[in-house]
């Protein structure tokens, strides 16, 4: 009879250890109920983000810099041609990197200038045209398109509200089943997550296509995927 009791004690200890890793360390109090719930908020994206990586290499640093500057200037021309303020594009970083040949020993062979440009568009109808024009201009090594929400904080708050509503409903159910009334909130913890979306980069074309004017963009006639934000709420309520 002692063996089953010993096994039960080990199982309970192990389970308690796992629960301690999954939930915050909350001190147990009499006449309280501790619940956790998930919530989410989904919304159609309102912003298209086009990320472009611009890079140029030459034997001289000044020549590499001028080539990179020319590519970026062509991006500005594409934006102006489509009635877009160049201030809608932002620069994330700029680097000048020496390039070496290590065979048979270190030898400087040139310089590589790299920068990235991110364009935010509200008019989704222009996305296909601009990406095609930038690809034909051959000014970036890659283009990456992503759809997002401008006000992500508001979406997170909406997800938290949904999670808390579900947590309170669970606590009310427990209180009612035990013949008690649910009291005020004593403690809460919140975590929010934005669902990851895999976006494949669009490599620059090897040559301009003759039928580019009649070929629809890869994103044409499709609806951008909704942005989903999830939240988890742990809540401790008093019982009356």
Structural description of this entry:
Helices cover 33% and strands 36% of the residues. It has two domains: 28-46 and 150-240, Protein of unknown function (DUF541), domain 1 (Translation Initiation Factor IF3, 2-Layer Sandwich); 47-148, Alpha-Beta Plaits (2-Layer Sandwich). It is of the alpha+beta class.
Largest sheet: 5 strands, antiparallel
List how many beta strands DSSP finds. Answer: 8
Task: Give the end-to-end Cα distance, rounded to a whole number of Å.
Answer: 40 Å
Overall outline = elongated
Number of domains: 2
Radius of gyration (CA) equals 28 Å
Mean pLDDT: 80
Report the β-strand fraction as a percent range.
35-45%
Uncertain spans: 1-21, 198-214
Which class best fits the helix and strand makeup? alpha+beta
